[in-house]
Structures are given as structure tokens and as C-alpha cells.
């Protein structure tokens, strides 16, 4: 994931314990950040997003975690570069089954596509997490757009 020239990477070496690195290639600086998923169950629904807010000079990493598809709530972690800490809250989650691995941040909101159907190949909803209010929302993708929907993108000042 990248935003305003900054790059955020999540990786692991042994298949279990992962690490998060935020790299600023212009300053050639790397920040290692503890991954909150290392303390959680392995068989879960887990998604990440990364974004930078130019007005505040702060970037955020969002981690949304659900133990099981049928769980009614999820655990949301937010890392702030200004405090250099993770904060978290449990949030009532509308049903989502498979948040795509691609994400984006737009105006301090993390966005994912919720994929459904056999093998999770049909886009059904856009899931949005408000970083400041810890609020999770889901918006249906229009039926006529679902078949051709591939990913989210920002064009001008709108999300497409």
C-alpha cells in the first residue's frame, strides 16, 4: 500500500509472525511497527488499510479483525504516526464475509470491497471504517455494477 510517497508493507518470514514497515523513500527512513494480528487467532477475517492525512501530517494504519464470519462484532485497531501507538475498540459489524486485500484511505476513512458468492468473486458492498469515530458502515454496490466491479479508485475528489 502506498500513499503520498510513503509505502506500507506487511510481511512475514516464517508464515506466522508478521511485521509492518512504513518506508519513506524520499528520506530513506523505515519505521518498524508491531503487527496487532500477531496476538490474535490465526484463522480469521483480517484486513489492513494505510493512509496519510496531509493537513495533520499523520498517517494511519487500520487493522480490522473478525474471528469468524458469523461474529456480530469485530476488533478495529488504528495506528497513528503522531502518537506511535495502536488504539483499538470493538465495533458492531454488519455482515461482511471477505474484505478484499486491496484497500484505500479517503478522508480518514478506510475502504474495502466486500466479496461474496462462491469463492468470493462477486463484489457486493463497500465497507468503510471511520478512523476518527471508529464507525464501520457498509454500502451496497448497484446491482448493474457488481458484475464488472474490479477495485476502488480516487478520481478528483470522489471514490469510484
Which blocks of ≥5 consecutive residues have pLDDT under 50? Answer: none
Estimate percent helicity. under 10%
Q: Which percent band covers the strand fraction?
A: over 45%
Shape: globular
Q: Structural class of the helix and strand makeup?
A: mainly beta
- The DSSP helix count reads 1
Order of helices and strands: EEEEEEEEEEEEHEE
What does this structure look like?
The strands form four sheets. A four-stranded antiparallel beta sheet has the order 1-2-3-4, with no helix packed on it. Strands 5-6-7-8 form a four-stranded antiparallel beta sheet, with no helix packed on it. It has a four-stranded antiparallel beta sheet with strand order 9-10-11-12, with no helix packed on it. It has one helix at 143-146; strands spanning 2-3, 6-12, 18-24, 29-34, 45-53, 58-66, 73-80, 85-92, 99-106, 109-116, 122-130, 135-140, 154-155, 158-159. By secondary structure, it is mainly β. Strand 1 (2-3) and strand 2 (6-12) form a beta hairpin. The chain has one domain (2-159). Pfam families: FBA_1. Residues 8-133 form the F-box associated beta-propeller type domain.
Overview in brief:
With 160 residues, the chain is mostly beta strands.
Amino acid at each position: 500500500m502506498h500513499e503520498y510517497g510513503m509505502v506500507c508493507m506487511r510481511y512475514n518470514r516464517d508464515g506466522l509472525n508478521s511485521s509492518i514497515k512504513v518506508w519513506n523513500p524520499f528520506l530513506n527512513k523505515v519505521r518498524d511497527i508491531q503487527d496487532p494480528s500477531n496476538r490474535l487467532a490465526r484463522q480469521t477475517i483480517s484486513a489492513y488499510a494505510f493512509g496519510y492525512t496531509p493537513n495533520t501530517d499523520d498517517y494511519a494504519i487500520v487493522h480490522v479483525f473478525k474471528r469468524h464470519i458469523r461474529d456480530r462484532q469485530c476488533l478495529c485497531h488504528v495506528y497513528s504516526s503522531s502518537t506511535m501507538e495502536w488504539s483499538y475498540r470493538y465495533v458492531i459489524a454488519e455482515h461482511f464475509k471477505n474484505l478484499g486485500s486491496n484497500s484505500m484511505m479517503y478522508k480518514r476513512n478506510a475502504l474495502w470491497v466486500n466479496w461474496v458468492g462462491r469463492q468470493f468473486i462477486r463484489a457486493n458492498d463497500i465497507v468503510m471504517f471511520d478512523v476518527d469515530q471508529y464507525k464501520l458502515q457498509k454500502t451496497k454496490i448497484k446491482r448493474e455494477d457488481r458484475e464488472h466491479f474490479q477495485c476502488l479508485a480516487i478520481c478528483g475528489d470522489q471514490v469510484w
